[in-house]
Structure formats: structure tokens, C-alpha cells
Amino acid sequence: MIEKYEMLELAVKACPSFKPVWDEFLDDWKDEKDLPLYLALGDLSRHISSLVETAQDSELKELFEVVERWHIEGSPYVKEAATIGLLEGLQGQSNAASIEPYLLPESKKWWDKVNDFWENGTLISE
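Below the sequence we write its predicted C-alpha cells.
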């Protein structure tokens, strides 16, 4: 099972260009014992958006394999953070439609649930 503090480490392995952002985040929050991971996921969503704009397909494909693992293998916290912390953040980006082709089946299911929530008020649940 993937736990919350493994999430971003897996993302950095899949997407080395995110490492400087993650390192800066860790430095900024080094005095906190509980990292605000949703803020880091916001950083990751902005980084993904920039990767999409520059067509960094190989990093994006590897990163979305990690996002898929978060949804399938993650603890309850990780699954929720992947959906609310990352996918919802990505949907707020100006190039959200360009992100959809990178989504794998489980992540796409949750992407659609977030869309349904914002369009129809349907609660996001299993």
C-alpha cells in the first residue's frame, strides 16, 4: 500500500523535472512535522500543466502511471489526495482538456467523478 509520504517521492522518480520543486517544498516546510501535501500536489498540478504545454510526453506518461498507482494501490488518504489534491487541481488548469489523454482507466474514472461533481453536484464517492 502506498502511504502519503511515498506519494511525492514516487512522482519525483517518474518525473525528475519535478525534483527541484519538491526539494524547495521540503525546504520551505522543514520545520513542520506534518507536511501539507495538498499544497505539494498543487505544485505538481502546475508542473504537469507546464509539461503538457511543452509536450514532455515521456515524463507525463510515467507520471500518470504513478497517479494510476495512487488510485489503485494507495491508502485511503493517498486515493483521496490523488483525486481531490491532484486531479481537481489539474481540472482548474487552462489546458485541462490536454491532460485527459494521459489518464489511465482508474484515474479517468475519478477525473470524470470530479467533473460530475462540479457540473451536477454529484458527490465524489466509490
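The mean pLDDT is 93.
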